[in-house]
Amino acid sequence: MSQAVIETTSMGDTDRTLKDGIRSYSGSARLFYETTSGGSNLKDILENSIKVSETSSAGGDGENAASGELKLKLEVGTNRSITFFVFITSIGMNSSMGEVSSCDISFEANGAPVENKLPTGS
Q1: Rounded to whole angstroms, how far apart are CA atoms 86 and 71?
Q2: Tens digit of pLDDT for each residue in 73-118?
Q3: Beta bridge partners of residue 54, listed in sequence order
Q4: Of 86, 73, 87, 59, nearest in space to 115 by CA
Q5: 10 Å Cβ neighbour count for 48?
């Protein structure tokens, strides 16, 4: 998460003052999936991020369908999570010899979190 600030200092002020500005959220994650089950959640990520041409089979036409956003829920422990709508900005597929494979993704959130179950305060 990053937060821009807007300076509100006026002529004659002796100290800098700020106002909160635009927030943005981005991150990366490693997804693990069982190759025997087909990795259905990974399939959703790939289908929303990598689009094939619907109008042409020619290479380099640049007219593919737009990428879609995904609802991403990040869980940290029991009953601690935060949910965003995100666009996937990069995908790195890994291969494995066993049943569990992984995929690294990076994402940028589209708007504010839609659900926040993180503890606040002390």
Answers
A1: 6
A2: 888 878 888 899 999 898 888 777 777 778 898 999 999 999 888 7
A3: none
A4: 73
A5: 15
Helices (H) and strands (E) counted in the chain, each on its own, are: 1, 7
- Cβ-based neighbours of 94, under 8 Å, separated by 6 or more: 101, 102, 103, 104
Whether residue 25 contacts residue 1, with contact meaning beta carbons closer than 8 Å, is answered with yes
What is the DSSP secondary structure assignment for residue 108, as one 8-state letter?
A: E
Contacts of 86 by beta carbon, 8 Å cutoff, 6+ apart: 69, 70, 71, 72, 107, 108, 109, 110
**Dihedrals phi, psi of 119, to nearest 5 degrees:** -70, 145
pLDDT at 34 over 90: no
Give me 19's structure tokens.
């106002």
Tokens 């965003």 sit on residue: 84
- For residue 25, what is the enclosing H or E element? none
